[in-house]
Input
Amino acid sequence: MQPATLQDRAVITVSGQDAQDFLQALITTDLDLLEDAEAKPGALLTPQGKILFDFMVTRDGTTIRLETGIEQAEALLKRLTMYKLRAPISLALTNPADVSIRFDAAPGAYADARFAKAGQAVYRVYGPAGATTGAGDYDRLRIANGIAVSGADYALQDAFPHDVLMDKNGALSFKKGCYVGQEVVSRMQHRGTARRRVVIAAAETALPETGTPLTAKGRSIGVLGSVIGGSGLAIVRIDKAGEAIASGEPILAGDVAVTLTLPAWTGLDFPAEADEATA
Output
């Protein structure tokens, strides 16, 4: 697979003696567990526990880098500035930013922890990276491993972290203490109430466009996200999908029959009854 340039990324750098403490009290990622050459997913939530902003987090010495989508970068910077008050930190935005994907280790590359969970070696590089191609290989690998991104697969302020597997991919901490929205996601975790999950959809023909409803017995159970040919991602009610699978009822994306699987790395299964999947 060829290195790929991502065209829609921005970077916010948070620097200063209190940079880590400042972010640790706000975002879902446990920065105490962030390795120097690692890129971890994370989010800043609403008080109601939904994803307000999402990003990849890396460390560059004492500076922490938040890589996010260009469409949310300005609003994320504004929100961080609001929380900053008199904290001895500096915030800087590069929009757009040079971000590329590699499939082999290189100096200055950060291993993407989401893909590592799935047993795949994918690296993020910041700054000019030489010759690259489009992101086709990256998106195919992302779909094949059930790694969702905002915009293509879910809308910000509409999804809970559990919906997009943040409880499984290292983005969500249940041990570090309080952060915005922490009480809600902790309650979902301990009560096992998460029923929407990312699934991999496969069809024998081309899938319809992103946003197409998935139905079983004529009722919507989810929505199709990223699509390449006959493969795609969707966020579905896994209890409803499990009922359809157990009874042999077809699941359709528009009028195309699909097979749904949960990403193997999550350890999740479809429940046969209206209950949460078990790991």
Summary: The longest helix spans residues 70-84. Confidence is low (pLDDT under 50) at residues 274-279. The radius of gyration is 19 Å. The first strand starts at residue 4 and ends at 6.
